[in-house]
Predict the 3D structure of the following.
Amino acid sequence: MIDQTENTPDQKAAPPPGGMDSATASELIADDVTVIYPTRGGEGVHALQNVSFTMKPGDFVVALGASGCGKTTFLNLLACFLEPTSGHVTLGDEPVTGPGADRGVVFQKHALLPWLNVVKNVTFGLKLQGIGATKRREIANKYLKLVGLEDFVNHSTYELSGGMQQRVGLARALTSDPKVLLMDEPLGALDALTRDSMQELLLDIWRETHKAVFFITHSVEEALFLATRLIVMSPRPGRITHEFELDFYQRFFDCRDARKVKSDPDFIAMREKILSIIHGDEVEGGQLNG
Ligand SMILES: Nc1ncnc2c1ncn2[C@@H]1O[C@H](COP(=O)(O)OP(=O)(O)OP(=O)(O)O)[C@@H](O)[C@H]1O
Ligand SMILES: [Mg+2]
């Protein structure tokens, strides 16, 4: 069953499939955040306006919305690459004041260092943290195995396909054992088949690692397939206008047949509903969805 709500961003999330102890885990909270980018004219771009949002352990939150509605701005706030003009971001009870190992980021383009091989890319952050070579290698092997790249440890990154490079980016983000994975259109540059298999891999890794995930996509189908919670954002000013709790990921775990899940009448009906919301926003905001 799909439980859907509109304009209720603080609705309770589905319990994590891995059964994580939510009492001991941390929530990532955006409390009434506004971001206004300065402009030469002085009026500023209201990229986000009074957005409040709580990410719970085990959530797989997917953000959808027309181009320019503030999705990346929101992710940058959660990562603390950016400070809000007003409002606060907290992780657990602590204010988030800078990028940290507790939040792993995966970008649309993998952002690997081309002069380092696969394992050195994956362990780069660990080295900066002062972790010794043996331990680094052990951690890297664990996550490279998890993303199915155990046979490519010593390869150069240019020897890998786009999907494999993206998997290296994912392994790198996982090495610091972050509480939250923040992913900005991580599958956007992949071909359709690779993208489909990466979606399945992501769900499996999410279930195994119990990470909270914040994931941005322009694909409604991808959003529906992956999300425990789907948020739809609207432009000018950027805000969360709709939120849905979904269970299509669970249906995939039950049957392991993604095509079956995505062709189910419930899935198609939900896809049409979300598309009509987004297209309504586009007409209103004068934006085209990318
Ligand atoms: N550094 C910046 N300076 C000024 N304006 C910015 C800056 N970054 C983003 N913006 C503006 O803020 C708004 C939100 O941008 P953002 O990149 O967050 O949107 P988005 O939803 O991620 O879009 P897309 O789907 O195209 O990636 C847009 O109007 C954009 O032009
Ligand atoms: Mg963006």
About this structure: The pocket of adenosine-5'-triphosphate (ligand 1) is lined by residues 37, 45, 47, 65, 67-73, 238, 290 (CB under 6 Å). Residues 26-102+178-273+281-285 form a domain with the Rossmann fold fold (CATH 3.40.50.300). Residues 127 and 136 are 7 Å apart (CA to CA).
